[in-house]
Write a structure and sequence with these properties.
heterodimer, A: alpha+beta, Jelly Rolls, 4-stranded antiparallel sheet, 4 helices, 8 strands, B: alpha/beta, Elongation Factor Tu (Ef-tu), domain 3, Rossmann fold, 7-stranded antiparallel sheet, 6 helices, about 30% strand, binds flavin-adenine dinucleotide, binds FE2/S2 (inorganic) cluster
Chain lengths: ~150, ~280
Amino acid sequence: MNTLEARLRAHPLFADLGEAMIRQIAACARDRHFDAGQYLFRAGGPADEFFLVREGRIGLEAHAPGGAAILFSTLGAGEIIGASWLVPPHRWMFDARASVSTQTICVDAVCLRNQFETDHELGYALMARFLPAFVKRLHATRIQLFDLYGGQAR
Amino acid sequence: MTTAQDANVFEPTVYRVASIVREFEDVVTLTLHPEGVQRPAFTPGQFNMLYTFGVGEAAISICGEDEDQRGFVHTVRQVGAVSQALASVSEGDAIGLRGPFGKGWPLSEAERGDIVFVAGGLGLAPLRPAIEHVLRHRSRYRRVTLLFGTRNPRTILYAKDIERWRRQADINGVVTVDHADAGWRGSVGAVPALIAGAPFDPRSTVAMVCGPEVMMRFTVASLLDAGLPAERIHLSMERNMKCAIGLCGRCQYGHDFICKDGPVMRYDRLANRFSVREI
Ligand SMILES: Cc1cc2nc3c(=O)[nH]c(=O)nc-3n(C[C@H](O)[C@H](O)[C@H](O)COP(=O)(O)OP(=O)(O)OC[C@H]3O[C@@H](n4cnc5c(N)ncnc54)[C@H](O)[C@@H]3O)c2cc1C
Ligand code: FES
């Protein structure tokens, strides 16, 4: 197993994935490092990659026209950055920027989507891992929306 | 010298406001010194009933003691009549105090293992003396993590203490906010989402959690997901109080009275009540 495959397996999302599937993903993946402040992608751009964070922290930002950026989520080691590559029209909704120096594995989404078309088993195995991660994040976002701490005594 | 505890439990002891720190617009931290008596001892997690004369009484957690251990320290957010009166006091004013009451955090049980403190908003107040205890006895504990959620970077309660805990006591302190501008270099997101990445061994960890109940519910789910057994998750519960000594039933929660069976309670003992809306 080459080192990129080992690093993919070290990510919690793929820890229990079979060797053949890890190899298939690795064929579409490469290591990428981002310095603090560097963008991974910007809103409106083509969502043809996604990122597995190995170390560091990525901030997701929304820009109001002419206004300051709002940082609405940060994601760290063991998490996945980017969901728009899964759903048409495959365009980023937000900006993603490294808050600190960050190590990722960048996966070519076009390469992976093409594999899903011919290998449904791979597609299913990955969806079964992505979906819980995204649903968890949706729940966490809802908790943020409750504005729990403001009007509460505790 | 008598201690304030010797007095009739319904009769407040007079304390004087020795100092006031305005944390935020609606939150103050008060140091209170007893008049003519010695301050009773307390365990981290306990609360006092603070009485503003002519207005009324409210349960307020003990968030510390001053350096010479003369007084109690309390942090209050104004939400109604009593807390508003407490937040508006001046130095030297008299406040009635009954307490300390209730069961505190399981700090001896947590020895020799990892600890995860999870706090939301003012929920950090009752955890603060527990963290200070860990700081004083650091070698008794292994990895210590504090996950603290608050609204935005301007509402970080005890920010200087958090910095000191990180520096002096090797406490892994993570502050996460609900929203921030792009200049914030810390974490943004809900506090339960930090649990999966926190460094602790679920086989030998005690979790101590305090914050709004919705936050505690999601936090418990994440702790259970991470492999922590229900009996090692402890929550500080909040219900309005009147007598604070288990007589009146005002604070009843299922078959428990929060004032004497709590406020700190083990999750396995309240699991079947925790998501029932009517309790
Ligand atoms: C064990 C325990 C420890 C506590 N520790 C602290 C503490 O350290 N600091 C502190 O500020 N408060 C603390 N509280 C909460 C405090 O006792 C209550 O907020 C109390 O009701 C305040 O009295 P009041 O007269 O100001 O407001 P009330 O007249 O009782 O309430 C006014 C309004 O505020 C709402 N309200 C009451 N309590 C809360 C709350 N907790 N969150 C949001 N809205 C609320 C009520 O629904 C009402 O609409 C604690 C409570 C318990 C049981
Ligand atoms: S407040 Fe009276 S029984 Fe708890």
